[in-house]
Amino acid sequence: MKCKWEVPIKMQNATSDSTCNRKLQSPNCRITRRRLLIGAAQAGIAASLSSYQPSLIAKPSPGLHEYLIWDVHGHLNTHGDTPTERIDNLLKFADRMGIERVIVFMGYPFTHDPSPEDVKRQNDQVLQAIEQSRGRAFGFAYLNPKHTEESLEELDRCIRDGPMVGVKLWVAVRCHEKCLDPIVRRAAQLKAPVLQHTWYKITGSLPGESTATDLAALAARHSRASFIAAHSGGDWERGIRAIRSATNITAEISGGDPTAGVVEMAVRELGAERVVYGSDFAGRSFASQLAKVLGADVPENTKRLILAGNIKRMLAPILATKGIPL
Predict the structure, then answer these.
(1) Share of the chain above pLDDT 90, in %
(2) Are 237 and 266 in contact (CB under 8 A)?
C-alpha cells in the first residue's frame, strides 16, 4: 500500500509506461513527507545563516588558559601505588584544565574517626606528595579534634615546623564542639586557615558530620581565625545562608553536581571576596566543578577572585612567614 504522501516524479527519457512504473517503485524515485520536511528545514537553516549579521554574534568567553586557577580542595584518592605517583597523575589532569596549583589533604584510605597514628600516617602521605609536586601543591594538616593534644602536636609538626599551610577537619566530631577551640586558636596564631567539611543530608548525616550552622557557631567564638566552609554545606542554599553573618567564613563550592546558581547566590549573599573554587578531586572532576564558576552569571573580575585571587589573599600571611612566593 502506497503512502498517501508519495508524489510521483515526472520521469525524463522514459521509453514506456512500464519503464516509468518500474522506476517509480524505487525509493529514489519518490518524494515522501519526510523528505519534504527535511528539505524545508535545511533550506530554512541555510537562509537564516546567510542573513545572520556578524555583529549579533556574542564574543567568546575567555579560555581556561586566560585564568589563574588554584584548586582549594583535593585528595590523593586516585590511581598510583605511592603518594608520588598519585600527585603526578593528579597534576597531569590539572594541566589539562589550566590549573596552576592545588591544595591537598588527607591520605588514604579514608576513615571517619582516625586514630592519632592514622592521622600522622595520612599527613606523611600528603607531605610526600607535596614534596614531589615541585611547588605546585600545598598541603593542609588533617586532624581529628577528638584527640586534641595529639592534634596540637601534629599541627605543630606539619605547619609550624613543616611545609603545610592550613588545617583540614572532616567528620570525626561536629565542629561546634569545645574540643576544637585549642586547635583553632593555634591555627590562628600560625595564620593557617581552617577548612571544615560541611554538609546537610536529608538521608541523615554521618556521626560527627558538621553542618554550616555548626561552623558558624565555631567561627563566632574565634573572630581572628579564618575558615573555609567546604562544599558550602552541600545543600548550598541553606549553607550559604547559615554562614552569611560570619564574615570570617569563606564558602567553597567543591563537590556536588555542577548545578547552575551556586556561585551566583554565594556572591550575592556573601560578596565576591568570600567565595573560592575547589573541585574535591579525585572524587569530582576538575571540569565539572570549574563549570560552576566559568558558567556563572557574574563579572569576569569576580570569577578571577573565586578561581585564585581569594585563596591567594587568604594564604598570603602564612606563605610570607614561610618565605614561599605567591
Answers:
(1) 76
(2) no
Segment 253-257 mean pLDDT:
90
Strand arrangement of the beta sheet that strand 137-143 belongs to:
70-74, 101-104, 137-143, 166-169, 194-197, 227-230, 249-252, 275-276
In this structure, of 35-39, 131-135, 254-258, 314-318, the range with the lowest mean pLDDT score is 35-39
- Closest to 141 (Cα-Cα) out of 176, 104, 102: 104
Question: What's the mean pLDDT in 199-227?
Answer: 96
- Quick one: how far is CA 285 from the chain centroid? 7
Amino acid 21: pLDDT: 45
Spell out the residues 6+ positions from residue 141 whose beta carbon is closer than 8 angstroms to its own.
Answer: 105, 123, 154, 155, 158, 159, 162, 164, 166, 167, 168, 192
Domains annotated on the chain, with CATH: 7-56 (no CATH), 64-322 (3.20.20.140)
115's grid cell:
586514630
Torsion angles phi and psi, residue 230, rounded to 5? -60, 135
